User: Fold Cullin-4 from Neolecta irregularis.
Amino acid sequence: MPAHRQKTLPEAWPDAAAKRQKTSFAPVKMQLRPPQPSPQADPALPPLPKRRIALRPANGPAKLVIKNIRPPQPENQRIYLDQSFDRLRRMMLAVLAAEGIEDSLQEAYKGAEALSRANRSADIQHMLEASFDSYFKVSVSPEIHRLARIVVPSTLLQEVNRLWDQWLKQLSTIRGILQFHDQNYCWSTPNVPTIWVLGTTFFRDQVITTNELQPHIIQSAIELLKAHRDGDRSDSLILKATLSIFNILGIYSEKLYDPLRIATSKYHTQLAQTAFSELLVEDYLKFIDDRLQQEEERCVFLSFDKATRNAFVKIIQDTMIRQKALLILEEGFQDLMERKKHDSLHLLYTLLQRTEQVKLLQDHWSHYILSQSKGVRLVTNPELDNEMIDSLLAFKKELDTVISTSFSNTVDFVHTLRRDFENFINKRQNKPAEMAAKYLDGILRRGNKAGDDFVVEQKMDHVIEVFKFIQGKDVFEAFYKRDLAKRLLLNKSASDDLEKSMFSRLREECGSQFTQNLETMFKDVKTSADMMEQFRNSKHRETSTNINVRILTHSSWPEYKEVKFRFPETLSRDLEIFKQHYKEKSPNKNLEFRHALDYCVVTANLPRGTKELHVSLFQGAVLLLFNNVEDGNVLTYEDIQGATSLADQELIRTMQSLSCGKFRILTKSPKGKEVKPDDTFQLNESFTDKQFRIKINQIQLKETKEENEAAHKEVEQNRTYEMQSAVVRVMKARQRASHHDLVLEVISIMKARGALNVKELKKVIEKLIDDEYIEREEDGTYKYLA
Assistant:
């Protein structure tokens, strides 16, 4: 018999505790007599002591305390108790045998109460234990033998539940009869179990945990749980009732938890293997999510405790996610990225969060960004240079979308994107910067044909996002400045507002020092317009052409080489008139003319109609030569070169644009796309076109290979000058510095201009030592020389 007792009543008897507090009192007869006169004092007797009368407040409660009241005892008490005990024993046996009860339950209750009051509760308890023991040995034991031979899991558990329900009914009847005994003896006597505890303990030990039946019950529960997971819900209530028995008996954790957990692990290990081999990664992720949701709902329905629910969910996570994580990522991540399966990627991220394996996803995220087929290819393949920025913008946009929609804007993924994007975009340090500048030139020239600048503004924002990762910002500045110069000088900007908007973005990103030259360029254009307005209103306005000169600050604009060129007489005279005007306004300044970007508008009175030709200065000068050529006559290549003094490279491009392009104002003999020194040219008298204003393809405005190389060489030279200046500034401020400290500080100063080549910096330091700006001391420290 168990040596413990239960402190609280089960839910089935909620009113038992209340009833236990009630106390029974026997009726008390009281007789009141009329007051008698006081007897005369006997002088022979000593005087009675005076009694003190305790006064109580008039408003206080009146109390009557009655002690040791007992019900009247029958004369044949022993006989009555013996008869009550026998009656009670017969009734217990009848209840257990499920036979008809002849005696009154009320009489049995009163007899049990009388026995308890007569201190015979121990006899009742022994009788009850003996009755239970006999019942289970005689009546229940054969049932156990029968149940152990049942092979159908649902049938076995159904029979076990039937035995349990029957036993609960029997136990409920017995507890009702022995309620007084249970409350007043079992609950208050140490080491005596309550009737509920006694009854459930017998069922636990004699039925559920028997060696003969327990393994079958556990295996049946495992089979029904497996069937439930496989979609067969027909026996779910039987399984739920069985689990309830184990919980009520307090043996679930000891007897059933581990077998269910082990079976769950085996089930999902096999399930994961089968599902992963049969399903695509996308479908497998959805399959896992469904299984997790179903398992949580199953645990709630079957009333599993929190520990079991957590264990089962963890098993699914371990077997289907943790153990397959690498395979999932290796076989499916890139495919999900390329097919833009953002929902599946978010599910993958969520599932790996459950198993704390997001770092694996982050590693594959990084590998995808840096893969040769993705980011690196966009930058390192020269064949893709023209599409580089468009491809980078699209790639960056897609990665940003994945982070926001699939990875919940997690900081680690954002940092990985920034680190890896900067890594691969600088595999070719100078080229992305160059192409970014050219891309901006394109959109600032074209603008938005629909008239809404918002789209262009968005594109500029996206370019700045990519520009942040580019280390060669000085390269970007050089090419952006060249393209800006052409847009400003040739009036090619789609919108002044867009130009200013882009300028503001660059200043915000790189600082005012970076955009100082650009700002000067805008001011020069404005100042030149004001000066030309003054020139036209001055005494020098008598010019044969509508000349327009731009006065530029030499140090802020790109370096344009001086082209040897002989001006037509008319243009040369007008240019001298402007020089005289400028000299009068600014006597202390000198003008140096650069004609590489000059252009003009020529009115051509052709045989088939007058046209307005928008051409470069060199093209215009060549066309003017044909004013002095009679109809049908030609000019040779040498004639044209002698009249213009243009070098071969410049003249060949000019003649190609006029005789081999879309608008062939001149014809060439012999025909062909190449211009040679022995070619001859004449006016194309049959030229015609619907348009009045015609823009000749300005080949000379396209950036040549030499110009490109010159731009890069200029950047390298400027970078060297900036490094020299930075070293001198640092040494002048510190007077002495170690090589390590000097390098770090110079890198910090120049980081806004782009990544610094440490080897080049060492050469700069050596050059400054040779020039005696600094010296190297014996310990390797550098010293500044005033």
User: Anything to note?
Assistant: The longest strand covers residues 599-606.
